[in-house]
Amino acid sequence: MSDEGAPERGELERLAALVPAPIRFGTSSWTYPGWKGLVYSKDYKGRGTAAPMLEEYARFPLFRTVGIDSTFYAPPSDATLQSYAAHLPAGFPCASKVWQELTIHTWTKVQDKAKADQPNPHFLDAGLFLEAVYEPYRRHFSDHMGPFMFEFQAIPSGPRGLSADQFTERLDGFFSQLPAGGPWAVEIRNPEFLTPRYFAVLREHGVSHVFNSWTRMPSIGEQLELEDSVAGPVLIARALLKPGRTYNEAVDAFAPYDRIQEPLPSLRADLVRLIRTALALRLPAHVIVNNRAEGSAPLTIVAVAKLLIEQMQRAD
Question: Does a structural domain hold residue 45?
Fold first, then answer.
């Protein structure tokens, strides 16, 4: 367990002022009551609290983006998008997960018992994405549209799955049907899909690879070392889990997410390296952190921001 606590507000503001403008820190979702005293000034209870929490979230000095994770399970309603937009400051971009109906290749029991082991007919359906996801965002949330993140959970190989080449071909066909410039981003959970052809397809369509820290994926630093892995117009990192740890293990270990419980120096160093890569290439970066990485996403972001500023000041 770590004794890393939250700095005072004034220190947070001074730290935030030193973070270069193209670098956007944020957390993977925001509806965590355990952040009271850290991010939130009051208790939020019951339904209808997500938008008011988002309003206070956006006032935290280091937060310049947020990951909207609930959109993985269903597209947000028009009313939800309108409510979020009304509670956010102008120009505050959100990185939204795309509806799983578009990214699941074959359903599992965990995802949908009724569809278990069935192929998904809507996998990478460009028309459905544009109609159910993109157009509502464009109508109601255009001032806050950050990257759309297509999260592909582990896809099996073999006759009922996809090979690396088959997956890349499907991506190529899908992004060929979307408006140029998106912004689009792809997150994969199959290490074997990290091929030169995969990165070439992303680069051709202006799509970003999401550098993710996940159970069975190479570290963010190892992904950065892959040739041409910086494929799109923005660098995106999602610090989700310590490699080798499962999601459920982290949930059990770290709730209620009010303190750092397991500092991960290598993960922090990888995030700073990604940020400095973005700055060197004059690209913006979204750095999104999950509570399950170290125990408290806001405090991980504070630690990474401090490390970034220390390195930048030493370089000067």
Answer: yes
What the block records as the tokens of 274 is 């990604």
In the structure encoding, which two tokens stand for residue 123, read together? 């996998």
Q: Is the pLDDT of residue 46 over 90?
A: no
What is the residue whose two structure tokens read 């008011």?
52
Distance, CA of 187 to CA of 205 (rounded, Å) = 15
Q: What is the pLDDT of residues 182-228, one digit of tens each?
A: 899 999 999 999 999 999 999 999 999 999 999 999 999 999 999 99
What's the domain range around 200?
9-315
Looking at the structure of the chain, the number of domains it has is: 1
**Whole-number Å distance between alpha carbons of 201 and 137:** 25
Task: Find, among 309, 292, 303, 276, the residue nearest to 67 by Cα.
Answer: 292
Amino acid at residue number 274: L
Q: pTM score, two decimals?
A: 0.95
CATH number at residue 127: 3.20.20.410
Residue 3 maps to a domain: no
Query: Tokens 């460009």 sit at which residue?
Result: 126
Q: What is the pLDDT of residues 9-22, one digit of tens each?
A: 999 999 999 999 99
**For residue 260, is pLDDT > 70?**
yes
| Selection from 112, 51, 109 nearest residue 83 by Cα | 51
> What is the DSSP-derived secondary structure letter of residue 69?
-
What CA–CA distances, in Å, run from 315 to 42, 276, 308, 311, 312?
Answer: 40, 11, 11, 6, 5
Q: Are 291 and 31 in contact (CB under 8 A)?
A: no
**In sequence order, which residues have a C-beta less than 8 Å from that of residue 243 and are 6 or more positions away?**
213, 214, 215, 216, 217, 218, 219
Report if residue 1 sits inside a domain: no
How far is residue 124 from each of residues 69, 74, 224, measured CA to CA in Å? 19, 15, 26
Residue 22 included in any domain: yes
